[in-house]
What we know:
Blueprint: E1 2-9, H1 15-35, E2 39-46, E3 53-61, H2 65-74, H3 76-79, E4 83-91
Antiparallel strand pairs: 1-3, 1-4, 2-3
Amino acid sequence: MHYIVIxxxxxxxxxxxxxxAARPDHLQKMKDLKAEGHxxxxxxxxxxxxxxxxxxxxxxxxxxxxxxxSWLSSEPYINGKVWEHYExxxxxxxxx
Length: 96
């Protein structure tokens, strides 16, 4: 099953510092997931000016929701309180 995960960063004064502190671990986690075949694509959500990262959008593939939950429980942006909130949406890639 494919999933879209949309995480929105906190808006407090320490939000950007938390993001930058957790970013190396987050990127390593994405590389590991890619090597395991779970990562499809991802990117940063930007503010209106296009200068500052304010969130993330990730498309992942997991065999089960338990596998998805296992990844979420170890995601550095969640554990590091970068994402103020996140949403998981089941997703089907169009076959065209």
